[in-house]
Amino acid sequence: MVLDGVPAGLPLSAADVNRDLARRQLGYGRGRRMAIEQDEVEILSGVRRGQTIGSPLTMLIRNRDWVNWQYTMSAEAEPDPALPGARRAPVTRPRPGHADLAGGLKYQRDDMRDVLERASARETAARVAAGAVARTLLAALGIQVASHVTAIGSAAVADPLACDFARVAALDDDDGVRCADPAVGAAMRACVDAAREAGDTVGGAFEVIAHGVPVGLGSHAQWDRKLDGQLAQALMSIQAIKAVGVGRGPDVAHLPGSQVHDEILRAGDHPTGTLPALRRPTNRAGGLEGGITNGEDVRVSAWMKPISTLMAPLRSVDLTTMEEEPAAIERSDVCAVPAAAVVGEAMVCLVLANAALEKFGGDSMADVQRAATAWQATVRARLTGPRPRAGS
């Protein structure tokens, strides 16, 4: 993968990226592939002596499972029988809920493996690697990003907004479900176990929180510059995500404004976000108003449908014979919500890093940090001390 636009002077190592790649492979309900794929990145260009140098950053993740598919996925019309990997039959029975049918018809492929391999969430390894670079850049600006699982199946956290950033950031990656409520976490595992026993799958929801975000990222001036819209698209692009929310999310449609909007109060010595002199007793807006960050934590959620491959498959039609048959079975997970949350972090990091560079852009990290510090001083001067009223 190639990541362009990273300023020079950002300390970066393969270990910074590998940490998130390993987190992506964890989670209760993952399948057999995670025992094969132990992703590690190789940085091929853009870094010298532990720092970015301003040129495009090129990273490589080797697919350890490739040897098992080399014959099946060969580019040759007649693959060499000596190639490793067992020959697998074409996929002609599309799985309900997957890209198999729509993609196979759109691209006119008789073997829907041409579609399903690219549609697979395997490609999110590259997103997580790129997101890890963005996370490192954000950290240099004092911005931290973490996530927690808020629902799996029928087990759900009652009020995700009650889980503050420190509580979420302290969650153990090895926990399996990364839920801030241990009792709900146990119920989540039970939901996964029940689905596995039934040959079924289960979905859920997660929330990503960005802490320390300055006011003023994004814009209200054009529809495509609104930061909440960019975040929504980024999360919605993750496989199996069917809904996205900001702050309190869909609940705002059912509540009066007095229970939706966040009051603005004088903070004294206790500001709630990055704005001096001001505080918000609530953060139902999720740190975004009018498409612009408002200084509070940015909080975005995503809802994930159950994975499409069922061990007790749903009904389908074999497109070769046009007869009803059970859907194809591919190697898959029972639940991938905790892993999707890590991908969600990566996407949020990429969007916020891009917005930060748009606001504070420079050729080097020293330039970017100077601009960010100057902006913080501007905001502080605006909000501390009385200002003369217009016309006085």
Molecular structure report:
The chain is α+β, with helices and mostly antiparallel strands. The protein folds into two domains: 88-119, no CATH class; 125-375, Chorismate synthase, AroC fold. Helices cover 31% and strands 16% of the residues. It has ten helices and 16 strands. The strands form six sheets. Strands 7-6-8-14-9 form a five-stranded antiparallel β-sheet. Strand 3 and strand 4 form a beta hairpin. The longest helix has 24 residues, at 337-360. It is globular.
In short:
It is built from 10 helices and 16 strands. The protein is an alpha+beta fold and 392 residues long. The N and C termini lie far apart (58 Å).
What is the fold's blueprint, element by element?
Elements: E1 2-3, H1 14-24, H2 33-36, E2 41-45, E3 47-48, E4 51-52, E5 57-61, H3 100-106, H4 113-119, H5 124-140, E6 144-152, E7 155-156, H6 165-169, H7 182-197, E8 204-211, H8 227-236, E9 241-246, E10 265-266, E11 278-279, E12 288-289, E13 292-293, E14 298-304, E15 315-318, E16 323-326, H9 337-360, H10 365-383
Antiparallel strand pairs: 1-5, 2-5, 3-4, 6-7, 6-8, 8-14, 9-14, 10-11, 12-13, 15-16
Helix pairs in contact: 1-5, 5-9, 8-9
